[in-house]
Design a protein that fits this description.
Elements lengths: L5 H12 L8 E4 L4 H12 L3 E3 L2 E6 L2 E10 L5 E4 L1 H7 L3 H23 L11 E5 L7 H11 L5 E10 H6 L6 E8 L17 H9 L13
Parallel strand pairs: 1-2, 1-6, 6-7, 7-8
Antiparallel strand pairs: 3-4, 4-5
Length: 222
């Protein structure tokens, strides 16, 4: 079993990313499972921790099969998987209904996790995007594209574990991809953790609240 739990995965990922500490990065986590991993990285790199609120848009009869994803923002970014939409024969009305349901969940989570806390300005910054693992890559692809729109200087995708083929498919979405364990065939992310219990809303809120909004190097510069 490669990882004891998400904290263990985060500490190991932090050791692999420590070279970025002097570049004063911003760490962005995908809730909920990515937050305990990212918190360890942010702590080691003395970096601010923020959230990338992204939701999978699953097909009506099989919610785990992603036909797209949506990312929070003033103009939410929607990524569509046209092959899955056609294969599942999903109408535009069905797609829109599920998209709007996921947007409502994003709004709930934003209020729950962040309250009035402002998002950090990513323009010109080194940004490290973290999740606890990748399966299909639909959610992380949407997240990376949303980050790109904010014009960071460099985008690093860092995950403990992922399928080899999915990492190859994501190679154009980030400037660098760091994955501690990649496998083919893959299975489920949870199979690579001894403890893969659900991360609670309360845990996410506490971890984010314990991190500064911006790194000390940028404090007072805006």
């Amino acid at each position: 079993m490669p990882f004891r739990d998400r904290t263990d995965a985060g500490r190991r990922l932090a050791r692999a990313l420590i070279g970025y500490k002097d570049q004063h990065p911003i760490v962005l986590a995908l809730p909920r499972g990515g937050v305990p991993v990212a918190a360890e990285v942010a702590r080691a790199l003395d970096a601010p921790l923020d959230l990338l609120l992204v939701r999978k848009i699953g097909v009506p009869f099989h919610a785990e099969l992603a036909m797209g994803a949506v990312v929070d923002g003033s103009a939410p970014l929607v990524v569509r998987n046209e092959d899955i939409i056609r294969m599942a024969r999903v109408s535009e009305a069905e797609f829109a209904a599920i998209r709007d349901h996921e947007l409502a969940e994003i709004k709930r989570r934003r209020i729950c996790y962040l309250g009035e806390r402002p998002h950090p300005d990513l323009k010109g910054r080194v940004v490290i995007v973290i999740d606890d693992g990748i399966a299909t890559g639909a959610s992380i692809r949407a997240a990376l594209r949303a980050v790109r729109k904010q014009k960071p200087s460099r985008v690093i995708l860092a995950v403990p574990v992922a399928p080899t083929s999915t990492l190859e498919e994501l190679s154009d979405e980030a400037d660098e991809i760091l994955c501690l364990e990649d496998h083919e065939p893959f299975g489920a992310v949870g199979a690579y953790y001894a403890d893969f219990g659900q991360t609670s809303d309360e845990e996410v809120t506490a971890l984010v609240a314990g991190s500064p909004v911006q790194s000390p190097a940028r404090a007072g510069t805006r």
